[in-house]
Structure formats: C-alpha cells, structure tokens
Amino acid sequence: MIGLLKYLKGYVRIKVWGFSPERFMNLCGNRDILLWDIVKDGDACYMSISLQNFYKLRPIVKKTGTKVAILQRCGLPFLIPFLSKRKIFILGLCLTVAFWMISSLFIWDIEISGNYQITEDSFMTFLEEYDVRVGMRKEKLDIQSMEKEIRRAFPQITWTSAKLSGTKLLIEIKENDAPIITATVEQTQGSDLVAEYDGKITAMIVRKGVPKVGIGDEVTKGTVLVEGSVPVYNEDATVREYTYVDADADIVLEHIRTFRARLPFDYVSKEYTGRTKKKYYLRLGEKEFRTPEDRPFLLYDSLIKESRPLLFDKLSIPIYFGCYTHREYQNTEHEYTLDEAQRILNEKLNTFLISLDEKGVQIIEKNVKIDTNSGTWVIEGEFLVQESIGVSTTILKEDTGENNIDESDFQEN
Predict the structure, then answer these.
(1) Model confidence at 179, in pLDDT bands (50, 70, 90)?
(2) Does residue 295 lie within any of the structural domains?
(3) Res. 135 pLDDT band, cuts 50 70 90
C-alpha cells in the first residue's frame, strides 16, 4: 500500500555527492524530508525522494555544498504527460479495455465432456435448437433449465452439469453405461442354410436342422445345405407336421475365388513450379473475411495455415488469423515401368489376400499372372480356397417345408 501511494504521488531517484552527503541527509531528516532506498557508492549516495519533497532541497543543497542529480523519474505525475502526447495509444488502450469488457458478456466457446454414445455434432444440434450457441449473451442462458432439457432429450444421460468459466460454457455429462436389455424374440418362422458359391463340401457339423448334403457332395449356388423345417412323423412313418428352427451348422466349402485388377500404362503427376502466392484472411466464428482475388494460377493447390492469438485463446473468443498459400503446379504424364506396375498390382493383390485371411479363408492353391491388355496392366488370379459358408433364408410356413430362396441373399465374388 505504501508503495502504491508513493507511485501515485510520484518520486525521483537522485544522486548526491560533494562536500558532505552525510550532512545533507541529516538536514533532510531534521526537516521531515523522507529518504529511502539509500545506497552509498564511494563519495556519492543514491536515494529516492518524493516529488513534493524534492522541491524543498534547494536550501539544503546550498547549505551543505553538495550536488544533486535526477537519475530516474517514477510515478503517475510523470506518466500522465507522457500519455497525453500519445493520443492514439490512449485510444487503443481504451478500445482494448472496452473490447475485453464487452466480450466478457458473451459465450465464445462451448466444451462438452463425458459423451461417448452421443456424438458432439448431435449434441451441438440440440443446443442450437434450444437457442444455446456461440456468441449468445450470458444473461440469456438458464443453466438449470438447460440441464433438464438435456436429460429429457437424451434418455441415456443420467447426470449433467453445466457452468460458465469466463467466456466458455462447460457442459459435463455422464451416460448410462449399463447394458440395455432387450426382450429376446423367439424365432418361430425358421430358416434354412443355403450355399453362397459353387463348390465341394469338405467338412460339415450340423447343430440344428436337417442336413440335405454330405461331405464330398458338389453343390451349386443356392443349394439348400441344412433345412430348418424338421418333420415330425406318425407311427406309420408319415409326416404329421413340421417344426421350424433356425438351421445352424459349420460347413466348409472348397471352391474357386478369382481376383482381377487393372492399372493404366500412364499416369499424371503434379510437378510444382516453385511459384506461390499468399492470401491472408480473418475468421470470426464461422464467418471468414478476405479481400477479393483472381485465380492465382491456371493449376494450383492451396495450403491453409491458421493461428489464434494467445489473448483470444485465453478469452475463448473465436477470432483466427490465417493464410492461404497457393502453389502452382503442372500436370506431367509418366509411364509405369514393369517394376512399378508389378509393385502396385502386387500391393492390390496383397490387400485382397489380407481380406481373405481376416475372413478365415484358407488358400489351398493359387495361380497369379500379370499381363497387358488394351493399354493397361492386368493382374489375374485364381485361388482354390476353403471357407465357411451358409446363408440363412426364411422359411414360409405356407410352403410346408418348401424353401423360399432369394438370389439377393448371395454376393457374387
């Protein structure tokens, strides 16, 4: 507090030297002139004195035969004349303070945490429908009412809390992580298992249903492998009725899978000329401001670099500065060499083989070749594989065991 009073009244840092600096300080003490921060350096003494008392030193200096020099001026009385000559600085300072004060009345950022099932986009859409958005005034926000609406709109949210931190709205939620129990609907319609490809059955284990094929049988696409309509017989071996189950079995089929990919002889690549043009912009929230510009080059792409001043970041104000860097390039035609074509086509083949491996498909034999055809490189392959098959198709009760097979249930390889 004493230091603040000294600053408001103003003080100077002085140097005293000459015949008797000690007598100078004694006379100042006798006349109630306060000196502080006194430092002796050889024959000179350095000290601080208030601006008001400094004007009382003239008779003391004459009486002691000392000399006094001002080294530093400190305090508000010296600052005001300095600022009065810099009106633009004062105006900018006032506008900055006004900007901070006005900005603090609005919400400039919304942060959501704790959402795992609910996407941030859907949550922000809800807030906009509830008239909670970036740029709204804080006084228009009813936090308790908003929390109730959030719990009402999202049943999976069990707890929510919202608070204002500066110009940022923090919303924290907790979702119900307990498993959602749904009623199990028993399958009474029944279903069959049918083949997806042409091939030969190599293994078969039936858990539910009536097997219609056996190991070693050749089947075609759409063949019923296991029926879900199980006959119930009378004593005279006639069918009394059918019970319906979902056919379930592990069936391995040996068949041919094919692969084919093309690669053109030539391709176009970008070659940058080294010429660039920069365009700066200012973004306020979702609005972007930049000066009009013509097309910089005939062919070009752009790099965007955006930054946010630390001041606006701390205040959570969505003001960004950025720069577009347009880079000129030319399209150049090249031809694939044999090595390049083989490398690219083999990468495509490896991707196909990895997808088979992920599905549990076992490759028994393979035959792959690379050739040219109509201006393109072509890779073709035939693979003898073994894989689990069986597509479920619903049984229509009216058919009494007859199967309704839809070709759309199969996917041609």
Answers:
(1) low
(2) yes
(3) confident
Q: Last residue of some domain: 332, 363, 384? A: 332
pLDDT digits (tens, 9 = 90+) for 80-112: 776 667 778 778 888 888 887 888 888 888 888
**Structural domain harbouring 310:** 268-332
Q: In this predicted structure, what is the pLDDT of residue 234? A: 85
Whether residue 208 is found in the same domain as residue 125: no
Judge whether 387 and 252 are in contact, CB under 8 Å: yes
pTM: 0.49
What's residue 232's pLDDT?
A: 87
CA dihedral 272, 276, 280, 286 (to 10 degrees): -20
**Tokens found for residue 224:** 């019923």
Question: Cα–Cα distances in Å, from 111 out to 118, 123, 162, 275?
Answer: 14, 11, 10, 41
Q: Do 165 and 314 belong together in one domain?
A: no
Statement: residue 320 has pLDDT above 70: yes
Element (H, E) at 392: strand 391-394
325 with 347, same domain? no
Residue 342 in any domain: the answer is yes
The answer to whether the beta carbons of residues 12 and 73 sit under 8 Å apart is yes
Of 343, 351, 413, nearest in space to 377 by CA: 343
Count CB atoms within 10 A of the CB of residue 31.
12
147 and 261 part of one domain = no
Same domain, 221 and 207: yes
